[in-house]
Amino acid sequence: MAKKKKKQTVHRRSPCPVACTLDLLGDKWTLLVIRDLVCGKSQYKEFLASPEGIATNILADRLARLVEHGLAEKYPLPEQPGRDVYRLTQKGQSLRPVMMSLVKWGLENIDGTEARMTPKIE
Predict the structure, then answer these.
(1) Cα first-last separation, the chain
(2) How far apart are CA 25 and CA 116, in angstroms?
(3) How far apart are CA 100 and CA 88, in angstroms?
(4) What CA–CA distances, in Å, run from 28 to 3, 54, 58, 74?
(5) In Å, how far are 13, 67, 74, 88, 113 from 122, measured between CA atoms?
(6) 3-state DSSP percent of the chain in helix, strand and coil, to 5
(7) What is the CATH number of domain 17-109?
(8) From first to last of its 122 residues, what are the pLDDT tens digits of the chain?
(9) Where are the domains of the chain?
């Protein structure tokens, strides 16, 4: 019998939109995976190659969570059976301005930061 996948839920501290957004996106790894998706990364190995060094179990969890909450979609790579690729959904794309604002803020307020984020134009 196939194992049922446990549906992940987001713990909500309050109905405040900022708190709810942070409950979903507020950890370092989720935002970095979204950054990579915005920049056009789509394959698991590409996410693993990011300089921050995300662990495979954390990456798998964050990708599954983004898919579950409708921010990303996963689909098979036709030319490579058994391999999947990820892309932002329309809901996920709506985070682009937020990510660009974080880049801008970091460049203006944190010494030593560099703009390496080049968003993929869609």
Answers:
(1) 41
(2) 21
(3) 15
(4) 30, 10, 11, 21
(5) 35, 19, 17, 11, 26
(6) 45, 10, 45
(7) 1.10.10.10
(8) 444 455 555 666 788 999 999 999 989 999 999 999 999 999 999 999 999 999 999 999 999 999 999 999 999 988 888 899 999 999 999 999 999 999 999 999 999 988 776 666 55
(9) 17-109
